[in-house]
Specification:
The complex is a heterodimer of chains A (112) and B (114).
Chain A lengths: L3 E2 L5 E4 L4 E7 L7 E6 L6 E6 L3 E5 L2 E6 L4 E6 L8 E7 L14 E6 L1
Parallel strand pairs in A: 2-10
Antiparallel strand pairs in A: 1-3, 3-8, 4-5, 4-9, 6-7, 7-8, 9-10
Chain B lengths: L4 E3 L2 E4 L5 E6 L6 E7 L5 E8 L2 E5 L7 E4 L6 E5 L8 E8 L8 E2 L3 E5 L1
Parallel strand pairs in B: 2-11
Antiparallel strand pairs in B: 1-3, 3-8, 4-5, 4-9, 5-6, 7-8, 9-10, 9-11
Classes of the chains: A mainly beta (112), B mainly beta (114).
Chain lengths: 112, 114
Amino acid sequence: QKEVEQNSGPLSVPEGAIASLNCTYSDRGSQSFFWYRQYSGKSPELIMFIYSNGDKEDGRFTAQLNKASQYVSLLIRDSQPSDSATYLCAPKGSSNTGKLIFGQGTTLQVKP
Amino acid sequence: EPEVTQTPSHQVTQMGQEVILRCVPISNHLYFYWYRQILGQKVEFLVSFYNNEISEKSEIFDDQFSVERPDGSNFTLKIRSTKLEDSAMYFCASSGPGVDQPQHFGDGTRLSIL
């Protein structure tokens, strides 16, 4: 079983729609979860982080966490063509050294 | 907004040579990391560094790799005797003051081994 699993996509949504990106993880000790956006050839850019079960909203982005199901998701409302990128799910490992374990990423395409 | 700075942006080196990748973390951060991303693959953890010592390293981080914080601002990754498979993007990241704080990444160094 992979440590962090994401559907590689591409996930294609029309402009203005809601994009839903999902991630499952295997380390039950993970307590902190991060979403990064990566444009082709660029570095990961922090989008959201969540530590507690439930929802966390920041502008057009909502992160959802369910530790019992080992599941974390990212919703992007009113998707824009500029949101087209690869979204990386990165739980922090349970070793408490800060190590992030990245998924393969989901490629999102927002069509005008 | 403070940012992590990496130099050089692109490094081309002959196989077997040594390279040093440099990073200036965000000034009030205490935790420092190196990750790498081979083209088309996922971002992989290499090493974490706190309080002037390695706190965790991955299986990738073998004896050819080393890290150093030579002064109060720089954080370096040295690769001795480079191999073709070391070709990748290398990202430095920092976080703080707590270990659970989000990590901010630099723009990366593209390392090409010939």
